[in-house]
Design a protein that fits this description.
19% strand, single chain, alpha+beta, 7 strands
């Protein structure tokens, strides 16, 4: 509480405090709504606030299911020949997009955000730049030495429901 000046009564003291609070809220409201000019560096500030799940990444659209090649370093399969960062580990596909990891039982999604323990250890161990380098080497090795990958690759499959419609 504010100390009461000798000339103030308790009623005027409450009014002074109330008007100060109103001024503060009005000032904050003006700043938030943009009525007061902000410094040039603050004018390009962007806020992104999500409640609940993160938005899904863009869908993976391919002409054919991707070829998956096993990587000893990642201890997971890597989709080679596609621009997306798509991986397969223990019957689950993992998709890295926009700095986040997503998982799905199908290579086309639907994708659910995952982090920390939900990411395979081999993928969690490396930075994305290193994983992309491993992916580049795996694609080159697979192209040059297909026999060596005889049992360490597979073609991802389309999945259909009982009515023959593709599951995405």
């Amino acid at each position: 509480m504010f100390p009461i000046n000798p000339g103030m009564t308790p009623q005027t003291h409450g009014t002074v405090k109330g008007s100060s609070m109103k001024t503060l809220f009005l000032l904050l409201g003006w700043i938030i709504s943009g009525f007061l000019p902000l410094p040039a560096f603050a004018q390009s500030v962007d806020f992104d606030f999500h409640i609940g799940n993160r938005p899904a990444p863009p869908p993976i659209v391919l002409e054919a299911p991707p070829r998956m090649v096993y990587s000893d370093g990642l201890r997971a399969y890597i989709a080679v020949g596609i621009p997306q960062d798509l991986f397969y580990f223990e019957h689950v596909y993992f998709y890295h997009h926009g700095g986040d990891w997503y998982r799905s039982p199908y290579y086309k999604g639907p994708w659910v955000h995952t982090e920390g323990p939900g990411i395979p250890p081999g993928l969690n161990r490396y930075r994305m730049e290193e994983i992309r380098e491993i992916k580049r080497h795996a694609r080159e090795d697979h192209r040059e030495q297909k026999l060596r990958f005889r049992e360490r690759h597979f073609q991802a499959e389309e999945h259909h429901d009982r009515h023959g419609r593709e599951i995405r």
